[in-house]
Specification:
Elements lengths: L2 H10 L13 E7 L31 H4 L9 H14 L5 E10 L4 H9 L1 H6 L19 H21 L6 E4 L3 H11 L13 E2 L18 H7 L4 E2 L14 E3 L1 H16 L35 E6 L1 H10 L12 E12 L10 E3 L9 E3 L2 E3 L25
Parallel strand pairs: 2-7, 3-4, 3-7, 4-5
Antiparallel strand pairs: 1-8, 2-8, 6-9, 10-11
Keywords: Signal
Protein name: Histidine phosphatase superfamily
InterPro entries: His_Pase_superF_clade-1 (IPR013078), His_PPase_superfam (IPR029033), PGM_Phosphatase (IPR050275)
Length: 400
Amino acid sequence: MKLSTLAASATLGLSAIATAAPSHSKTITYTTVKGYFLQDEPSTDPSTFDYTSHNFGLIDRRYDSDKHDPNTRDLTQWERFHRELEYLNKHSPQHVSYKLVFMGRHGEGWHNAAESYFGTPGWNCYYSLLPGNTTHTWFDADLTPEGVSQASIAHTYWQSQYAEQNIHFPDAYYVSPMTRALKTANITFSGLPLPLDAPFIPEVKEGFREGMSMHTCDHRRSKSYIESLFPWWTFEEGFTEEDELWTGVTAETEEAQDERSRDALDDIFSRSRRGPFWKSKPADVCGGPGHDHDHGHGEDEKDLVISITAHSGEIASILRVIGHQPFGLSTGAVIPVLVRAEEVKEPDGPTASATWTHSAYCTAPPATSTASGCVCAASAPPVTSGFPVGGTTVPTPTPF
């Protein structure tokens, strides 16, 4: 679902959207290329895995590119992996592209702390619909001190991987517009010894925000607020001043979230330089036509390594889209995935967009918290229409 359609339907508060339109004759299919990272292995337990334990999970192994390059003996594992990434792109068909995608979950936010305090059922049924309490705000939640620490761990680990492994830093950065993700990305990548032709100037992208529910933590602040925090960052085309997606009434289904995740990936993967489908960068973009900097990619491909700072639910959605096994991330954790993208032709025909639904909630703190659903006070039935208890009240943000 294109975000323009999504925004319109969300603003109207529709519980279901069904449209029929001609499909594109070309689309991109995504595949996880397994065998490179421990996170690809079914035997790896995401609940205990520590991405800082060894090279972000990069498996020590030989690559096909090693056979064709006599100068790899003294290279680190990450240096040889990057040559493998270049090799895959150089020897792939014109309609196939490979990218290494680093997905980082934001550090702990005040909404995470509130859910732990109130319990998940009570949080989902009532407290998440409030903008906050007398001590903390979880509308577009900021980072807790623990969240800041988790982002700092990621920063330090990137720094050590560069010093010890000469890891290739991301060529492009994308970040969710939610405050907790913005600040996590900034703490993680600011101050690193990045190359001049790939500085940390992320693009703020609606497609990578958390799955949208009635929770106020899913309601973003204005574009002006984001610009006040990071005035040198960029925004995707069409990014609106106010949040036109969150309604406080309807919730995005898993299918709808996967559609917008796919649209965001399509936009990123279509910005490289391979052939008519892989669109060229404009001449005024660093690394585009007319620029000498190559950042080690050869002449056929740009932005081989990308960073996405997002959320647990959104990263889970991206993993579904690229065919990766489920791999839950704790707050502040990072997962790298080698992604293969292929242009395929599809017959023209009508397409149906995914639905949004109303969710049940309580109008007062729930009497009990159960995993099966909302149990409201005085045996009152859960409400499924109208604005939730949080309404549209938005507290004034205060600096962290």
